[in-house]
């Protein structure tokens, strides 16, 4: 059953840092707020890609990453948590990075989504090392960026293997 995580008492939903950090409230959905946040970022990615292609989507991912450092940092400080699960702007920036690198096709974006969520949840080395090494807003954001890079390279390797074997 889908539920909502209540905001910490010191935060208000209309606060720009809260709206950004929770990706317009999608990170408040439970269970699996990271997956909800990633899903909520997809329509924005489609619109941005339609407006300006992969390059605009890449630039937008970088901009959202920078915004996320501030928003995630502000949210986590107010919530008194190192990496609050309801902060999902990191998922938005990361999935946009993945989508900017992959072919615009339902299969390409579905595979990118699944691979990103796999690496973001599993956090193999060095993703977990980045998560532990960096703190604050940057720390919240960087592990998902590394998970996105893992997803991109895994997609490329799978695509090469498919091409060779087919």
Would you summarize the structure shown here?
This protein is an all-alpha fold and 166 residues long.
Structure description:
The protein is mainly alpha-helical. It contains 6 helices and 2 strands, in the order βαβααααα. It has a two-stranded antiparallel ribbon. α2 packs antiparallel against α6 and α3 (89-101) runs parallel beside α6 (136-165). The longest helix has 47 residues, at 33-79. The protein is globular and about 55 Å long. The mean pLDDT is 96.
- Spatial separation of the terminal alpha carbons: 42 Å
Structural class: mainly alpha
Q: Which whole number gives the mean pLDDT?
A: 96
Q: How large a portion of the residues is in β-strands, by DSSP E?
A: under 5%
SSE order and pairing:
Layout: E1 3-4, H1 16-21, E2 29-30, H2 33-79, H3 89-101, H4 106-122, H5 127-133, H6 136-165
Antiparallel strand pairs: 1-2
Helix pairs in contact: 2-3, 2-6, 3-4, 3-6, 4-6, 5-6
List key phrases describing it:
mainly alpha, 166 residues, two-stranded antiparallel ribbon
